[in-house]
Amino acid sequence: MINTVVFDAYGTLFDVNSVSRVCEKLYPGNGKIISRVWRQKQLEYTWLRSLMGRYIDFEQVNRDALRFTLNQLGKNYTNAIIDTLLDSYLTLPSYPEVESTLKLLTSLRRMILSDGTEKMLQTMVRNAKLELYFDQILSVDRVQVYKPDPRAYEFALTAANVPKEDILFVSSNGWDIAGSKSFGFNVAWVNRVEKPMEELGERPDFIVSNLTELIQIIN
Amino acid sequence: MINTVVFDAYGTLFDVNSVSRVCEKLYPGNGKIISRVWRQKQLEYTWLRSLMGRYIDFEQVNRDALRFTLNQLGKNYTNAIIDTLLDSYLTLPSYPEVESTLKLLTSLRRMILSDGTEKMLQTMVRNAKLELYFDQILSVDRVQVYKPDPRAYEFALTAANVPKEDILFVSSNGWDIAGSKSFGFNVAWVNRVEKPMEELGERPDFIVSNLTELIQIIN
What we know:
2 copies of one chain form a homodimer. Chain A has helices at about 20-25, 30-50, 60-70, 80-85, 100-105, 120-125, 150-160, 175-185, 215-219, and strands at about 5, 110-115, 135-140, 165-170, 185-190, 205-210.
């Protein structure tokens, strides 16, 4: 019986692709490629630093990933441009169905487990006017290692303080699905854009095309 | 005083981009994109599986990465096609200056440390007629974790059985440079195509545009 839902944040509740509009304003014609490479590099750096045992927080990882991205794409930048682009991660819009779904889940405990720092996550949730809907907002910063290291999921389990079987972990990121399933959570993959499944030896328990479909799974 | 050179294999001694020609024959017009996504996914899977604590060997990772790549790009395939593409990783050509450089380094111990399995590496080295030039060919398969986890570099250090300072680690992969430098090796980055440096908090000791330039560093 599911009594706790743990959501990933970036790409699951909040639309990271929206960053492309800010990129496009600053670099006309290049908004999509910049936001795509930046997101990819951001993830790579969380994985590589975790593997190297060289954790730095997500604010710094995000800045490093952005600088690499602009260097690689041959774009000039100033510190002010970097700051403007980084700030766009604090005002990511939530997906259209997020608030209505969260409203229907008020009888359950609702949590976030994210790579973002507590400050980034709290600011983003507040900017999206969703702060009333979460019982706990957890940052991997507390355990100093990024998903999909099992210690990140263990942190959420400990914070939830319920048996593993009571938890549904929800993410749109295929690698996060593999990691959370490998850890032993019940897992729902939000596959909004018909991506193929990652070939990492794990399958989610549920696949939905948006968060609204979670309601049926839980009931 | 450097007396041991440890080379990365894929991208450093052997040209992974050559796979695009085999991909192009099977999927006309798509050779470059397939080989690029495949290589990226192959690396991602080594990092993700290492983080998850779910190691499988590089032959299997490479197969999984290829299947994901073809699924993502919407390409049909048979097992025979998969096998043909995987086989192309056993006949990667070495870069033009590899043999002449290795010949000039015969007074030093020369090793390979690679994510590939021993079988893959030995076949590839033999196919390129380079088997006489290496004292040891090391696969991370022995330690069941991929670079840039420090245990992979530690394995090479133990096998070399010389002080860390006596070793020069050579790679064209920016993430491998960060990992090996973070581990504490002397590091040379072979930057053949003027890539920007990865923003992972580490800088190589030397940057060369091809392997021939290593000779001066070592002498």
